[in-house]
Design goal:
The complex is a heterodimer of chains A (49) and B (631). Helix content of chain A is 86%, strand content 0%. Chain A is mainly alpha-helical. Chain A has one domain. The two termini of chain A are 26 Å apart. Classes of the chains: A mainly alpha (49), B alpha+beta (631). The interface between A and B is medium-sized, with 23 and 27 residues.
Chain lengths: 49, 631
């Protein structure tokens, strides 16, 4: 499930970027951050383990 | 307020062309054919539509001839458009090297919704009888952005899956390389075992060789010793033979001497001489004994006479011997002494003769003894000669045997030496061959070691991977991350899909409402409804009584009428903020009343919303010029 905060971020990307390239640019950044979070979470889990 | 358009080397124009448009009014662009109306419209559209970011917009721009590449005058090297309106400037330029300079901040949806030309999508579809208007909601509404976002996320999902597939393939490759590594390790162990076995064989063979060589050396030494011993013995025997021959010579000489000595002894002569001498001595002794006897008688006579004289006390008397002469006592005593001496002398002489006789008698015996002795010596010498000859013969036999043995030993020694040399050569050859094999194995081992190191390195390096320009991590980590990322991206995609659908539906609702409004205001009463069906996104044209008429069966003028309605609705629904609307000669297809109504509507719309409505118009009166008139 996507959290409300995340939905707002996703909507902001659409709203503020009419151009396809800009949308892709922002989404790319978003995906990068998402991956960073996944890696950080993984490291946190490993740290706990 | 006016908008200024400057075109440089656009379409049919060479050099710079300037145009002005009145805000809030219809600007009629009048010109004859082939003067540049289309170039003007396209140049203007270009300034308003660019940048084009979606493939569909680019495709649509190509269909309408407003791609930048096709806008440049074919005889010129560069081109540019500048549009000043409402305090802002939109411009783009194409350099001589084909690259693009400035880009305006337009809206690509202008290619669908900002202009109605013969090439416009609405006209094309209606002329073709194509009722699929799904592009309206898909490309003109915000649903398009969601679609772009969804499409991008979908690409990211595909990318994540492909990366996962890459991981799986690399894992398979790693497994294959691991299998190859195992094979190489087995091969190494096999080569190692082969090498060890060969080394053991070499050792064994070396030991055997050394032992055999030792045995051969011992044998050769033994033979050598035997030869030396035989040679020593032969030398000694030859010396013995020399000595024997010398002894034999000495013996022969002695024998000759003895035989000559023996032959030199005349035993019969000696015997005769002895007999003669003994006879002579015996005769002499007889004579002497006779004289002694006479003398002893005389002595006795004189001694008796003396004794008588003494007894008688006489000093003289008759000679007892001659009985006639007188003799005195002293005479007697002298005579007795003389006779005693004479007897003694004679007895001594007898003794000497007896001794001489004995000597003579002994001389024969001595000679005989000498002969015996010589004979004995000759016998001994002959015996010795025989013994020496026998010894020499034995020695010669022994020497012969030894020489034979020596020849045999030398031959055997030669055979052994040959065998030794052959064995040495064979061993050297085998050793060289084995060393070559060992070298080959070593080379094989080195090659396998290199491959093992290579595979190990590949496996080690390949077990960790860097994706998304992140630090290297294990396959498992990346698979987990990709799984999580894909899951999250799928959620986002689902969200954008849902939002796209919502916007599409809403966009169609808005569009249909605007179509209805435009239709009513234009007084298009021949249709009850023109709308895009929300279910199949197809254009629905309902005649009076709400009878649906297929698009392809509409007349050309109906299609153009519907097109202007749809185009105005598209503009109002999707591009309310773009202050331009272009209608290129399409309006000439309408009857005068409808044309007037449309132009009136557009005029009202321009006035009400502050638009620059640009309408082209074929006019032969304009000559070679393009006239822009405010209607």
């Amino acid at each position: 499930m996507i959290a409300e905060e995340e939905k707002q971020t996703l909507e902001r990307i659409i709203k503020e970027n009419p151009e396809k390239g800009k949308i892709q640019q922002h989404l790319q950044r978003y995906v990068d951050e998402l991956l960073n979070k996944i890696i950080a979470m993984e490291e946190k889990d490993e740290g706990r383990a | 307020m006016k908008a200024e358009l400057e075109l440089r080397n656009i379409g049919g124009f060479k050099g710079i062309k300037n145009f002005e448009f009145q805000k809030g009014a219809i600007n009629e662009v009048e010109a004859s054919n082939a003067i540049g109306k289309t170039s003007l419209i396209r140049g203007l559209a270009c300034a308003l539509a660019y940048p084009l970011t979606h493939d569909e917009a680019i495709e649509e721009a190509r269909n309408q001839g407003i791609l930048r590449e096709s806008l440049k005058n074919i005889y010129e090297k560069d081109a540019a458009v500048r549009l000043k309106h409402d305090g802002q400037t939109e411009e783009w330029g194409m350099r001589a090297d084909g690259t693009f300079g400035l880009l305006p901040k337009g809206d690509e949806r202008f290619v669908w919704a900002g202009m109605l030309t013969q090439e416009a999508r609405t006209i094309r579809q209606l002329v073709e009888g194509n009722s699929d208007f799904s592009w309206v909601s898909r490309w003109l509404s915000r649903a398009q952005r969601y679609a772009s976002a969804k499409s991008f996320i979908d690409l990211q999902i595909t990318d994540a899956r492909e990366k996962n597939n890459v991981l799986i393939k690399r894992q398979e490759t790693l497994l294959e390389e691991d299998s190859k590594l195992k094979q190489k390790k087995e091969e190494r162990a096999r080569l190692d075992e082969e090498r060890e076995q060969l080394a053991r064989q070499v050792d064994q063979r070396e030991r055997e060789h050394l032992e055999r060589m030792k045995v051969l050396d011992m044998e050769i030494r033994r033979k050598g010793d035997g030869i030396s011993e035989r040679e020593g013995r032969i030398s000694r025997l030859q010396q013995d033979i020399t000595h024997l021959e010398e002894e034999l010579k000495g013996n022969a000489k002695d024998l000759r001497q003895r035989e000559e000595e023996l032959q030199g002894i005349d035993i019969e002569g000696i015997r005769r001489e002895v007999i003669q001498k003994v006879s002579e001595i015996d005769k002499e002794i007889g004579e002497l004994r006779k004289g002694v006897a006479v003398l002893s008688g005389q002595k006795s006579a004189f001694t008796d006479a003396k004794s008588i004289f003494v007894q008688r006390g006489e000093r003289e008397g008759l000679c007892p011997i001659c009985k006639r002469s007188t003799i005195d006592l002293s005479f007697l005593e002298v005579e007795i002494s003389k006779i005693s001496n004479d007897i003694l002398a004679r007895e001594r002489k007898i003794q000497a003769s007896a001794a001489e006789r004995t000597r003579w008698l002994q001389k024969e015996a001595t000679e005989r003894q000498r002969i015996d002795k010589l004979n004995q010596e000759i016998k001994r010498l002959n015996d010795n000669k025989r013994g020496l000859n026998s010894t020499k013969s034995r020695t010669m036999t022994e020497l012969g045997n030894l020489k034979k043995e020596l020849v045999k030993l030398r031959s055997e020694e030669g055979i052994l030496a040959e065998e030794r040399a052959k064995l040495g050569k064979e061993t050297e050859k085998w050793k060289a061959e084995t060393l070559q094999v060992l070298k080959n194995i070593e080379r094989g081992l080195q090659a396998v070691d290199r491959e093992i190191a290579d595979y190990s390195r590949k496996i080690q390096e390949g077990s960790f991977i860097s994706l998304y320009e992140r630090e290297r991590a294990s396959f498992q980590q990346w698979q987990n991350r990709l799984r999580e990322l894909e899951s999250r991206l799928s959620e986002i995609k689902g969200y954008y899909e849902q939002r796209q659908h919502q916007h599409e539906v809403q966009a169609i609702v808005n569009f249909n409402n605007n179509v209805k409004k435009v239709m009513a205001e234009l007084g298009f009463t021949e249709f009850d409804q023109i709308a895009i069906d929300r279910d199949d996104m197809r254009l629905k044209v309902l005649r009076s009584g709400f009878i649906r008429q297929p698009v392809e069966s509409l007349s050309t003028s109906e299609k153009y009428s519907i097109a202007i309605v749809l185009q105005i609705a598209l503009k109002e629904t999707y591009l309310p903020d773009i202050p331009f609307f272009i209608v290129d000669e399409v309006v000439v297809s309408y009857d005068e009343e409808r044309k007037q109504r449309i132009l009136d509507y557009l005029g009202e719309m321009a006035k009400e919303k502050g638009l620059y409505v640009v309408v082209t118009k074929l006019s032969e009166k304009a000559g070679k010029e393009i006239l822009v008139k405010v209607r």
